[in-house]
Each structure stands twice: as structure tokens, then as C-alpha cells.
Write a structure and sequence with these properties.
The chain has about 110 residues and is an alpha+beta fold. About 30% of the residues lie in helices and about 20% in strands.
Length: about 110
């Protein structure tokens, strides 16, 4: 797993994808701290790392990154850690459009082409 606080290149994400899942990299984004952890086996592993290092549960969202896709198809909002009835998120996606936009903004900031 790798914490991304500044930038990561698309080519580095592509290398991670090839080594683990073939076409995707799992990531968990902290929308408050504007950081993410990538390259874990499970979103829950990445989530645990962030929680142990100062993040709050309500700010963490699991996504999949497809670094070989076009930019609009780079992000998939799908993770079991996103199931949060207490926050009004009843799916594995990210139901709140404001939260989705925050995630997209953070990903654009953290991934350099």
C-alpha cells in the first residue's frame, strides 16, 4: 500500500494495476485531508491504515482506479466500505453528488499524467 499526499503518476498506477489486478488499482480517499491510499488488496485494508493514521471514518470512500482508461472512466465508485446507512449511503457507490465531486477533484489533484 502507498499513501498519496502529493502526486502519483498515471504510469505508476498502471504499473501497480499490472502487478495486482491487471487493469485496476483499489484506493480509499480521505475527502477531509485530501489524500488517498492505493494498491491495497482490499479497500478495508486501506481504510484501516488511514484510520490508524488520523483519518475519520465519515471522510473515507472506496473507489477503483482504471489507469488504462480515458480520464472520464478512470474512477469507479464501488466499494463495500461505502455502505453506510448512518450517513445516508445505501449502496456500494457514493450516492451524494457533492461527495462524488470532492472525490473527483482530489483524484485530479493527486494523479499527474
Amino acid at each position: 500500500m502507498k499513501i498519496i499526499e502529493d502526486k502519483i503518476s498515471l504510469s505508476e498506477l498502471q504499473k501497480m494495476a499490472k502487478q495486482k489486478f491487471g487493469n485496476l488499482v483499489k484506493a480509499v480517499v480521505d475527502i477531509q485531508r485530501e489524500i488517498m491510499v492505493v494498491d491495497g488488496d482490499l479497500h478495508s485494508d486501506e481504510e484501516s491504515w488511514l484510520l490508524e493514521n488520523g483519518s475519520k471514518q465519515e471522510n473515507l470512500w472506496g473507489i477503483n482506479l482504471y489507469p488504462f482508461s480515458q480520464h472520464k472512466d478512470l474512477i469507479e465508485f464501488d466499494s463495500l466500505i461505502n455502505l453506510r446507512p448512518s450517513q445516508g449511503n445505501l449502496s456500494r457507490g457514493v450516492d451524494n453528488p457533492i461527495v462524488r465531486q470532492k472525490i473527483i477533484k482530489i483524484i485530479k489533484k493527486l494523479i499527474k499524467k
